[in-house]
Amino acid sequence: MQLGITAESLLYIILGILVVDFIFESILDWLNNRNIKKELPGDIAEFYNREKYELALEYQKTNNRFGLLTGTLSFIATLLILAFGGFGWLDNMLRQVTGHEIFLPLLYFFVLYFVSDILTLPIQLYRVFVIENRFGFNTMTPRLFVTDKIKGYLLTIVLGGILGGILIWLIVNIGPDFWIYFLAISILFIILIQLFYSTIILPLFNKLTPLEDGELKSAISDYSKKVDFSLTNIFVIDGSKRSKKANAFFMGFGKKKKVVLYDTLIQNHSQDELVAVLAHEIGHYKKKHIIGGMITSVISVALTLFILSLIVYNETLSLALGGEQLAIHLNLLAFGILYSPISKITGILVNMLSRKNEFAADHYAKSTYSGEALKTALKKLSVDNLSNLYPHPAYVFVHYSHPPLLERLKALG
Ligand SMILES: [Zn+2]
After folding, report:
1. Residues 317-368: pLDDT tens digits?
2. Coil, helix or strand at residue 413
3. In the chain, N or C: fewer CB atoms in 10 Å?
4. How far, in Å, is the centroid of ligand 1 from the Cα of 368?
5. Cβ–Cβ under 8 Å, residues 284 and 357
């Protein structure tokens, strides 16, 4: 597909998309900020003392201010790099290292990833070791931060190198039909991640242990028999080595399915509440949300790849980013920005579906175990994590994958 516009016009469209998105997000942040209320809703007051609630408000304010600062900085940096053709300049530099049709794009993306990670390192450090520390969440040591970083890089190089290498090879060698081949590979990858994430990738960062024999296990055992879910699929993860925040999640399917409970969750909740949380997670499995999520991912990847196939061979994209010739990596980068309004919409749709699924899993926990126990667990989680009790509905609509606490409590009756 020919775009029929000059590189200069295309650059203005790219800059325009970034500006509109920045304004849109700033309005959402502003609405969300303004929506914070000082008074506590009645049914939560028993879990919050005034002091702790003030702390939660302070936590939200701190995060909002920090987000505004870092978001603005990265917005300005991106605009400047685009306006001065920085992405094209990097392409020219790296062409002196290699002109290989696969290695050049991979090297290009790795340099971008590495440089932007180093530049944002102060931000990452401040978030973990200053903000999270101040509010008593952080348990991560500097040493763990460094080893996480190194493992993250290696994982990105291996997985990104394999997937990115295949994508670029297909684009270069197959022509516009590449998207069908890469869609097949993506589907395989999505399935493999569900099956092997918890046995191969997660253990690189955390320890998963089967639920120990004891009171909790026997309390859970009755429930899991009732809903026909094997106890051998329930695991505990050492989340406490990074943060005091608690969580639980469900992954995989078939023999590889797993409910994972954070050790921090187990420490702070009664057996009744833990069974209710577990029931919610099993609800995700029984209601087939895992398969649904995978199908949604496949549809969204298919749409992205198809649209990519329409414009990826267009030299104008590379020129708009300051390149001197067609470069697949520059085109992929330009596509990433041009496609962002569509991915924002698909992201909103995915969040809508996810919030619907959360209500359904809550309902499952209520009907197979206890709505009251789940309500107490959700309230405790919200208080312990200092969550925002009053997010603005527009902000929730765009960004929340889980419904806000008060809506979930209302739905549980
Ligand atoms: Zn859930």
Report:
1. 999 999 999 999 999 999 999 999 999 999 999 999 999 999 999 999 999 9
2. coil
3. C
4. 15
5. yes
Could you tell me the distance, in angstroms and rounded to a whole number, from the CA of residue 403 to the centre of ligand 1? 10
- Encoding tokens for residue 211? 């639920």
pLDDT tens digit sequence for 305-331: 999 999 999 999 999 999 999 999 999
CA of 32 to the centre of ligand 1 (A): 23
Spacing, Cα 281 to ligand 1 middle (Å): 6
Read off φ and ψ for residue 98, nearest 5 degrees: -150, 145
Q: Which CATH superfamily is domain 208-265 in?
A: Metalloproteases ("zincins"), catalytic domain (3.30.2010.10)
Q: What six digits make up the tokens of 345?
A: 């919409």
User: Could you give the 3-state DSSP secondary structure of residue 120?
Assistant: coil
The single-letter DSSP state of residue 269 is S
Cα distance between residue 400 and residue 391, in whole Å? 9
129 alpha carbon – ligand 1 mean position (Å): 29
The span from the CA of 197 to the CA of 181, in Å, is 23
- Determine the Cα–Cα distance for residues 363 and 403; give it in Å rounded to an integer: 13
Domain boundaries along the sequence of the chain: 7-206+287-412, 208-265
Over residues 212-252, the pLDDT tens digits come to 888 888 888 889 999 998 888 899 999 999 999 999 999 88
Separation of CA 294 and ligand 1 centre (Å): 15
What are the residues facing 258 on neighbouring strands? 251
Tell me phi and psi for residue 389, to 5 degrees.
-80, -25
The model carries a pTM of 0.92
Look up residue 4 and give its amino acid: G
Going from the Cα of 400 to the center of ligand 1, the distance in angstroms, rounded, reads 12
Ligand 1 centroid to Cα of residue 355, in Å, is 9
pLDDT tens-digit readout, 34-55: 998 888 887 788 778 888 899 9
Ligand 1 center to 31 CA (angstroms): 26
Q: Ligand 1 centroid to 379 CA: how many Å?
A: 15
Rounded to whole angstroms, the Cα distance separating 131 from 121 reads 14
Q: Quick one: pLDDT at residue 244? A: 96
Query: Following CA atoms 89, 95, 97, 103 in sequence, which dihedral angle do they give, to the nearest 10 degrees?
Result: 110
Q: Quote the mean pLDDT of the chain.
A: 94
Closest CA to 72 of 117, 118, 26: 26
Paired tokens of 339: 């496609």
User: By three-state DSSP, how is residue 141 classified?
Assistant: coil
